[in-house]
Amino acid sequence: MTKITKRALLAAVATLPLMAGSAWAEGLISIIVNDPANPYWFTEGEVAKATAEGLGYEATVAAHKGDTNTESTLIDTAITNQAAAIILDPANADGSIGAVRKAIDAGIPVFLVNAEINESGLAIAQLVSNNAQGAALGAMQWVDLTGGEGNYVEFFGHPADNNAATRSNGYETVISQYPDMVKLAEEVANWDRTMGYTKMQSLIQANDTINAVIAGNDEMALGAIAALKEAGRMDGVVVGGFDGSPDAADAIRSGELAYSVLQPVAIFSAEAVRQADHFIKTGERLVAEEKQLFDCLMITPENVDKYSAPFTLSE
User: What are the phi and psi torsion angles at 245 (to 5°)?
Assistant: First the structure.
C-alpha cells in the first residue's frame, strides 16, 4: 500500500494550476459522493469536478447518501452515459463491491476515494486518508490535553464504513495505554451532527462526570459540543474531532473544539481524477499500487490561522 506523505501532498497541490492547461482531453467523468450536505463530501465532489473540467472533461456530481441501491442506479446511469471513468466514494465496504464490478465489466475504470471496498483487484485505485495514522495523531493530542485521566465518551461513525473501525481502533491503541482514562460509553452516530447531538444529550443525562469526548468525525464532535453547551456542561470538557471541516476550524478558533485531524480530501480527490485521466489516455495506472494512503495533518489553536481553504492547511 502506497503511503503519501505531507511533502507529496504539497507537491500535488502545487501542480493543480499547471494541469488546467492540458484541456485537450474529452469525455465524461462521473463523480459519485456520499452526501454533499456534509462539507467534507461536498468538497470531495467539487474538487474532483473542478479538476476534471480543468483537464477538459465534462464532469457530473451525484450523491448516493449511503444507500447502495441509489449507488447502483447512479453506476447504471454512468454506464448508460458512457462515462470515461467513475470517481466513487463507496457507500458500503461490502455492499458497493457489486456496483464497482458492474462498472468494470462495462469497461469503465473506477477510482475509489475516501473509503475502501473489501475486495482488491476491481478498482484501478483506492485513494484514502491514512486513517490509522490520523487516529493515532489525534488520540495522542487528546490524551495530552486531558492529562491522561478522566471519564470520556467516544462517538463512532457509520459501521458499514471501514474508516469508522480504523479510527476507533487507532484511538483505542493509544488510549488503552492510560489506565486512568475511563470510557463511559461508545455511541454510534453515523458521522451525523444531529445524531451526535441527540446521543450526547442522553449521555449527559446518564453521566455527570464526563470530561472528554473523542469523535470519529467533526460532525459528531460538533453535535456533542452543541449538546454540552445547551446543558451548561461545556466548561473543561476536551472534545476532539476528525476531518478538518470549515466548521471545525471555526470551533477551534472559538475554543470549543480542542483540535481536528485534517483529512487531505482536497488532495486525493484531485489526484484520483489525475490518475483517471492518465489511465484513460494510456490504459496504464499512474501509480502501481491500488491502495494509496494520504497522511493526515493536525489543526490546533496554534496553527488554525493557516487553514486557508476547506480541508486545506498551508505551510
Answer: -75, 160
**Residue type at 201?**
Q
- The tens digit of pLDDT for each residue in 232-256 reads 999 999 999 999 999 999 999 999 9
Number of Cβ atoms within 10 Å of the Cβ of 21:
10
- Distance of CA 217 to CAs 135, 190, 206, 239, 272, Å? 10, 9, 23, 11, 22
Task: Identify whether the C-beta of residue 249 lies closer than 8 Å to the C-beta of residue 299.
Answer: yes
Q: Cell 448516493 belongs to which residue?
A: 64
DSSP E strands: which ranges in the chain?
Answer: 2-4, 28-33, 58-63, 85-88, 110-113, 125-129, 150-156, 181-188, 212-215, 238-243, 259-262, 291-294, 297-299, 307-309, 312-313
- pTM of the predicted structure, to 2 decimals: 0.83
Closest among 274, 310, 313 to 292, alpha carbons compared = 274
- The answer to whether the beta carbons of residues 191 and 224 sit under 8 Å apart is no
